[in-house]
Write a structure and sequence with these properties.
- This protein has helices spanning 6-20, 30-38, 41-48.
- By secondary structure, the protein is mainly α.
- It has one domain (6-48).
- Helix 1 (6-20) crosses helix 2 and helix 1 runs antiparallel to helix 3 (41-48).
C-alpha cells in the first residue's frame, strides 16, 4: 500500500529501520512508534518504498 504523504512515508521508514534493528525502538516518536508496533515488516516496506516526488507534505 503506498503512503499518502511525505510525512507518512518518512515515519514508515523510521519504523521499518527500528523493526529491522538498525535503530533503537526508543528513538521512535509519535506515528512511527505506533506504526512499528501495529504493522508487519512487509506493510512498512510498502509505505516506505513509495516515491515521494508527487506526495503532499501532510495528508488531508
Amino acid at each position: 500500500m503506498p503512503a499518502k504523504s511525505k510525512a507518512q512515508q518518512k515515519a514508515a521508514g523510521a519504523a521499518l529501520a527500528a523493526k529491522r534493528g538498525e535503530i533503537s525502538k526508543s528513538e521512535l516518536k509519535g506515528a512511527s512508534k505506533e506504526m512499528e508496533k501495529s504493522m508487519s515488516e512487509e506493510q512498512l516496506e510498502g509505505f516506505a518504498a513509495t516515491k515521494r516526488k508527487r506526495l503532499p507534505n501532510r495528508a488531508k
